[in-house]
Amino acid sequence: MALTDEQVARLTDERFAHTRPDLAGVPDVPREQLPPGLRWPAFFQTAGLLRFRHRFVPYLHRRFGDVFTVRMIPGGRPLVLFTRPEHTREIFAGDPEVFHAGKGNAILGPIMGEHSLLLQDSAEHKRARKLLMPAFNGAALRSYQSLVTELAGAEVATWRDGTTFRSLDRMNALTLEVILRVVFGVTDERRLAELRPRVNRTVNISPAILLGWGWPRLQRIRPWKGQVDNQRELDRLMYAEIAERREAPDLAERTDVLSQLIRMQEDGDALSDAELRDQLVTLLLAGHETTATALALGAVRDRP
Ligand code: HEM
Asked: Which atom of ligand 1 is nearest to the CA of 120?
């Protein structure tokens, strides 16, 4: 049965009641056992990382070397940054029962939800991976090829000789279009038009909003209130799409990710509406800005 608007709003509010990071789970590691770092108050270090990362991180790198600690609000939690590719490789290839990526991504919880692949570890992560993987196998990816070619062609056709634009803006618009179509399939243009600004606003989350998450009461005032309202609206659209798709007469033939996930049954296991919502938001967000940034960087590097 489809959720009512009030039930959806309650789900959004529950997520946003927990924007403050759970400090109870943070081990109290003595300063001497951590890599070096500044002695500035955590507020300034957090602001430096969120707002001036392009200058702040190189400054810390020059001052402290390849591995250093930044203190984050609330509570001055230590965040250790690594700058060498071999360290990254070691962490990513490390034992997943030790390197809990899901816990490390907890800040994404209010947006992506507790079921998100990016927030889960261990057995839960394995289960979600097993359910999601078939939607991204070789055959599934090849089926998206012509759609991507068509959308890229349509985007480039709007570019005019002699005009200047930011490549990142155009790549973001293109990859958002691709991911919306790949995830939802060709849905009605009205729903896509409603989704685009909601997804954009979710992604363009400002450092001020993130900093304010440590104090959930701020959500009663702007700009934090506007961000929660945007999430409520995004959730309403997502749950409406999920409910409609479950009933779609052509569900069996559809090749988009949402339809594939609804059809998926692994040993009688299937994704609930809340799980579907969390994985879809994850794919929409993880799948578009990352790719847009890589494409925009490529465009700069390849410039004659
Ligand atoms: C150049 C483009 C991309 C880059 C640089 C990138 C980068 C990353 C990184 C670094 C992670 C690991 C995060 C962590 O474990 O904390 C990750 C995970 C993930 N990415 Fe991407 N990504 C890109 C494109 C995409 C696309 C196109 C999609 C979806 C269509 C996507 C979906 C995901 C998902 C679902 C995860 C979580 C996987 C898991 O935990 O099992 N990414 N990505």
From this structure: 40
